[in-house]
Write a structure and sequence with these properties.
With 214 residues, the chain is of the alpha+beta class. The protein is built from six helices and seven strands. The chain has one domain. The termini are far apart.
């Protein structure tokens, strides 16, 4: 009997206009846990209007936290086959994650040129659409809110060879992106997927909770 192929969680950068995949970052090891928090966007939170008590303003504000490990130890046992790891450790993997929260050098240089040209307003730099992928049932547009890297071990040249990465993300909804945006469409597809999965859970009768029919 063959074991099922283990898929990896990760992040995908997508060009908003063309939909072309720019970069896929697969986590080396799937984290043991994933933490999610959902804050309801309720109407009438300040109180006073009873007609608003059951109304929701929009999609819940969801945040996701994951902690992943990156380790070059196994690759360093065979340096001839893994020259990059032998020369710079896990610098490339860490740099790929760091650049998810940084504008490109070209974009910064371009904005500087615009400002030097006398522009009264320089627009904020737009980054590619970022997707968090955790299996086929969870593909959501996100913004990274915080990135923490703890480098745990180094080689003789002080290249990091083992690190723990903590990623904080906020799911972007149609309230953030709009319905026509590629990311908004992906969020709606994700929401419909959750609705379909919820139907599979069924519904228990009130008697299961020790109460009569309500």
């Amino acid at each position: 009997m063959t074991s099922p192929r283990l898929i990896k969680g990760g992040l995908v950068q997508v060009d908003v206009k063309s939909g072309r995949t720019l970069r896929t970052i697969a986590l080396q090891y799937n984290p043991d846990s994933l933490s999610r928090t959902m804050q309801v966007q309720a109407a009438g939170e300040s109180g006073g209007d009873r007609s608003q008590a059951l109304r929701i303003m929009g999609a819940a504000a969801e945040t996701i936290k994951v902690e992943a490990e990156i380790d070059a130890t196994d690759r360093l046992e065979h340096p001839d086959q893994n020259r990059t790891a032998a020369e710079v450790g896990i610098h490339p993997q860490l740099a790929a994650l760091e650049l998810l929260v940084q504008p490109t050098s070209d974009a910064l240089q371009g904005n500087d040129s615009i400002a030097r040209g006398g522009a009264l307003e320089v627009l904020a730099i737009e980054t590619p659409l970022l997707l968090f992928v955790w299996g086929p049932n969870r593909v959501v547009p996100v913004r990274i809110t915080d990135l923490s890297i703890t480098e745990d071990a180094f080689d003789a040249q002080l290249n990091p060879i083992r690190a723990t990465v903590s990623l904080g993300m906020r799911v972007l909804t149609v309230d953030d992106l709009g319905f026509e945006h590629r990311g908004g469409q992906l969020f709606m597809a994700h929401l419909r997927s959750r609705e379909a999965l919820a139907k599979q859970a069924g519904s228990a009768p009130p008697s299961a909770l020790g109460v009569k029919e309500l």
